[in-house]
Amino acid sequence: MDLSSRQKEIIEMVKEDQPITSEQIAEKLSLTRAALRTDLAILTMIGILDARPKVGYFYSGKSILSSIGSYMKNLNVEEVKSLPIIVFEETTVYDAIVTLFLEDVGTVFVQNQEKNLSGIISRKDFLKIAIGNHDIQKMPVAMIMTRMPNIAYVYADESLYDAAVKIINHEVDSLPVVEKKINDNDNEGLKIIGKISKTTITEVLVKIGKE
Amino acid sequence: MDLSSRQKEIIEMVKEDQPITSEQIAEKLSLTRAALRTDLAILTMIGILDARPKVGYFYSGKSILSSIGSYMKNLNVEEVKSLPIIVFEETTVYDAIVTLFLEDVGTVFVQNQEKNLSGIISRKDFLKIAIGNHDIQKMPVAMIMTRMPNIAYVYADESLYDAAVKIINHEVDSLPVVEKKINDNDNEGLKIIGKISKTTITEVLVKIGKE
Known about the structure:
Chains A, B: Keywords: CBS domain. Two copies of one chain form a homodimer. Chain A is of the alpha/beta class. Chain A has helices at residues 5-17, 22-28, 33-45, 63-74, 77-80, 93-103, 123-130, 160-169, 198-210; strands at 49-52, 56-59, 86-88, 107-111, 117-122, 146-147, 154-155, 174-182, 188-197. In chain A, strand 4 and strand 5 form a beta hairpin. Chains A and B meet through helix 3, helix 4, helix 6, helix 7 and helix 8 of A and helix 3, helix 4, helix 6, helix 7 and helix 8 of B.
């Protein structure tokens, strides 16, 4: 967003002499208040200036940050999710590690026989097991995975911001994107329909920056 | 940035009937053109609408994206870098893995005797070695690390956007933040002064969203 030179001048003026009234700004610029109205409305609107009634204008400078915030809050997980890599509870730890390398991912999701999300395994979980004295060629992933209800996940209609908050708060690298489903036996389950990772977030930012 | 209900109405109108002139918008809203001037100026200014002389207004919707891009390009790595975890070339693979768990990081940087950046090891590198038949208690990290000049790194005065691009292009989880230095023997080296990871980027976004 490009500001006009007059708008930039107004910002500098407010930064130096805040609070400052529109009359004072108009006088300094030798303009009428009416001529300034649109510029002041724009600067207040986009949040660079803060207007307090009967006091005047303050410099806030928050606008760009808050637009990033609202952009992230309006972007649905659905629009940016990537393909999930899924193994079964019976898959051996060794085979799951091979899958992780072949698919070039950092986290593997696990589903049970009803095809519901039942676990998640990170590179660190695998590494911990691999340096121990375990027969990883025979051990099923069900023995080492993080299980429900300890799995952090998101629904497709949550925002990228919600996903980022969960990733940071739960200290994980990625989240399964899920949808609720009713199984044959009337139990509720979560179907894995995608993945949101720190990589997704970084890619979104790179894509935005390129545009 | 919150748009007024009239501004939102104008946006919807332009989306449906673009290009549309200010006369047509004024007529639909039963307002004078003068009453619309500030709203149209704001919407054009922040880039949601595009105005073409003698044609009318178009919907662009680009503004927020471009402010995110410029924010990321103006934020220096210096301001957001975190502490690097560093081991020596002689450190054993086992000890480096223990450090990775103790420090709760995903990547370990390696420095040589001159205290210059000489290597980097990811969780995947460790995992690959751990599942092979290696004596990781005796093997030094120098045997498995990615070496210069194959290490992606950033300088402190590069932007967070530059860092994100390198992370995606080199398919890594984190970058050492370095500064050039001249060693005693007049060789140039890179001193490790920080770390930028996908976690850093995700944290920055969460922080922005909270504000």
